[in-house]
Amino acid sequence: MLTSIQSKLIVWFLTVFSIVLIGLGFFLDYQLSEIVIGSVDSHLNSEVQFIAGLLRVEQQQGPLETELLEFSQAAVGEYSVALSGHYYQIVSSNGKLLVRSPSLAIPNASLPIEAESLTPSYKTIVGPEKTPLRLLNQSFQLPTGVLTLQTAESLEESYKLLGSFRKIILIVFPVLFIVSGIGIWMMIDLSLRPLELFSKQIGQITEKNLNERMDERSAARELRPLAVSFNTMLGRLEAAFSKQGQFLSDASHELRTPTSVIKSYCDVTLGKERTPSEYQEALRMIATNVDRMTDIINRILEISRFDSKTFSWVTVEVDLLDVMNDACKLLEASASSRKIALRLNGVKTTVRADRERLTEALLNIVDNAIKYNRTGGRVEIDVTRAGPWAVVTVTDTGIGIPDIDRQSIFDRFHRLADGRDLAAGSGLGLSITRAIVEAHGGKIDVQSEVGKGSQFRIFLPAVAP
């Protein structure tokens, strides 16, 4: 089985070339046969017309039988030599053989008598000594009645000519096939060299030099779309590697802080004898940081599942207003501790979603609205429907988001500089929220003004009522 493109192209080209050669051979053979046989037919027609003219002259000079006998005896040239390959005979209207050429003057040598025909009739027959003959049969109206003239000519020389031509074809065409095969191989090899060079250049690009790109301008015209696509893929790979590296760096940084705190408390606590209350305080601080590390690790695992598409959800029809109400109940205590008013308004809107994951996404948004809010502020939540979308709008009166942070707020481990003292989150909440929303076929956007607050809108495909 052919696996090489070069081999396939050579086979395809040679197959087509072979078909063309064979077709050309048959065409040339047919044309040459037509020319050769046509030449014989033309000569036979001239002979018949000549004999008919002589007969008209002879009939004016005496009885038909006498004149025909004299005509036969006067035959010269090829017609006078036995089995010369050139023959004629004259037949009466009743099918009686009147005279034949001396070249037929041997026992049982005659031409087949054909039916009368005023138009020339040609056919190929087997003549004396089983030689192939071309026979012309034509009737003429003479003063004494209708006579049929038949002339024949051997096709041996014509067939020899055709045989020689076919031998030449059988020699020349294989040579042409071989030469063409070599030429096609060289042409395809030259044509595929840019692809080989392109492949070598691609092979030189590794994870260490993903910033390199294929030269689209110098690439062959047929390879430019491939170069463009490959460069686009390299760009995505470079971004993915960079994002992965940044993610690992950020994750290490986030885990280093609680790890350092735990190590510090362990060193200080073990530095000297402590009271039971001091040991308990140290363990409480260690437990707090362990919980933070556990939260970061769980969120990292959750994001990795989103990236690898290995999460499994059970989607059912849920009332978005009901889900939002449950989320608000879970955050009432947090809002009350900061004297933040939490208000929910809206209408019943049905979506298909994994209730647990959707609740997690909504909790992240509302929790951030509480964390980054002012003491005594408010958070308003509206559940509405806009065309095919179910929309959850979360508006707060918090610190707002600077323009420089708004584009990257959904990036992993991104946290507002102004909010670090207010909330020590992992910086993964909004990233997970966006992943959950997009996995449900939705989208999320944010509008904000520094010092006045922010508004997050979550759009989810609504179920038709």
How would you explain this protein's 3D organization?
With 465 residues, this protein is an alpha+beta fold. The protein is 52% helix and 18% strand. It contains 9 helices and 12 strands. It has helices at 5-59, 64-73, 156-203, 224-270, 276-308, 320-337, 355-371, 403-406, 429-439, and strands at residues 86-92, 97-100, 121-126, 132-142, 145-154, 316-319, 341-346, 350-353, 378-386, 389-396, 443-449, 453-461. The strands form 3 sheets. A 5-stranded antiparallel beta sheet has the order 2-1-5-4-3. A hairpin with a 5-residue loop joins strand 3 (121-126) and strand 4. Helix 1 (5-59) packs antiparallel against helix 3. It is rod-shaped. The two termini are 58 Å apart. 21% of the residues are buried. Residues 419-423 have low confidence and may be disordered.
Nearest-integer average pLDDT: 82
Summing up helix and strand content along with how strands pair, one would put the structural category as alpha+beta
Shape by Cα distribution:
rod-shaped
Helicity range: 40-55%
Poorly predicted spans: 419-423
Count every beta strand, where a strand is a DSSP E run of 2 or more residues: 12
Number of helices: 9
CA-to-CA gap between the ends? 58 Å
Summed up:
The chain is α+β, with helices and mostly antiparallel strands and 465 residues long. 52% of the residues lie in helices and 18% in strands. The strands form 3 sheets. The chain has a 5-stranded antiparallel beta sheet. Strands 7-9-10-12-11 form a 5-stranded mixed beta sheet, with helices on one face. A two-stranded antiparallel sheet has the order 6-8.
